[in-house]
Write a structure and sequence with these properties.
heterodimer, A: about 110 residues, about 0% strand, elongated, B: about 170 residues, Four Helix Bundle (Hemerythrin (Met), subunit A), 6 helices, globular
């Protein structure tokens, strides 16, 4: 445990970045599961995508993955942009039809 | 302590704190602005990882694009009064259990794994290498990403214009 404490305040290594991304990931899951506003859920998804991206780029910095990790991160950002545009168009359509964006009230497809 | 170490802790605290404010804030506008600070903190972490081009892309695409889209979504889907920006929170106990469980498991796995670390030499800039790779090994994903963005733009515009046409026809 002492070694862990000393390590945790040392120069940031791979593990530090991975821990930051793990905390971001869990906060994103928290937002997706506990909030009932569709836009809040979308923000949680953005947080999860960012945490995955930190992982890719940390591995590209500290291992032999080299620039390939950064390239994958670039494509993740591109796909996140496309996802956000389409998802917000869908949210606007849903709001226009149901006059609410509460996820629990949009249950027309429920059996 | 070196400057990079201090900067790392500063920006990781900013990122995690802003993300926590985003998740736990009751007001969705506060959440959106907290998300902005979290994204800027992530961009700073990219700079600390020698990914300068990705940090710039993160600032341009996320802070300049996606965040504006989210703010537009907030404005267009609330009924126009600020008190309607408040959002409902449900499933608080299961969500807390699941997310803390995920965090503990992930951190445990990250700390106990022996990563095979090879220290890469510091790069002066990554833009040249990324451009060469994009036109070389990654030419097919690059083209597919372009087609994906085109399809996404067409889909988003189609859905929005159908929305306004319905409004015109209905009322």
């Amino acid at each position: 445990m002492d070694v862990l404490m000393i390590q945790s305040f040392a120069e940031p290594g791979l593990t530090h970045f991975l821990i930051v991304s793990a905390i971001l990931f869990s906060l994103g899951i928290m937002a997706v599961l506990s909030r009932r506003n569709t836009i809040m859920v979308l923000m949680g998804v953005e947080l999860i995508l960012n945490s995955a991206n930190i992982n890719f780029i940390a591995f590209s910095r500290f291992t032999e993955l080299s620039l390939d990790g950064q390239m994958i991160g670039l494509f993740v950002i591109i796909i996140a942009a496309a996802e956000a545009a389409v998802a917000l168009a869908i949210v606007l359509n849903v709001y226009n039809r149901f006059k609410t964006i509460n996820l629990d009230e949009i249950s027309l497809l429920k059996g | 302590m070196e400057l990079t170490t201090i900067l790392f802790y500063l920006f990781s605290i900013v990122t995690i704190g802003a993300a926590a404010v985003m998740v736990f804030s009751k007001n969705i506008v506060h959440s959106a602005f907290a998300l902005m600070f979290a994204l800027i903190g992530v961009a700073a972490l990219y700079v600390l990882l020698y990914a300068d081009f990705l940090a710039a892309t993160q600032l341009l695409v996320y802070v300049g694009g996606i965040l504006i889209l989210i703010l537009f979504g907030v404005m267009l889907t609330s009924l126009g009064y600020t008190f309607n920006f408040r959002t409902i929170t449900v499933n608080l106990v299961p969500a807390t259990v699941l997310s803390t469980g995920a965090a503990v498991l992930l951190i445990f796995a990250f700390v106990t794994t022996e990563w095979k670390i090879t220290e890469v030499a510091e790069r002066p800039d990554t833009v040249y290498d990324l451009g060469m790779m994009l036109m070389g090994d990654y030419i097919l994903p690059f083209i597919v990403a372009g087609v994906l963005l085109l399809i996404a733009i067409i889909g988003a515009i189609l859905m929005s214009t159908r929305l306004s046409a319905e409004n015109k026809g209905g009322t």
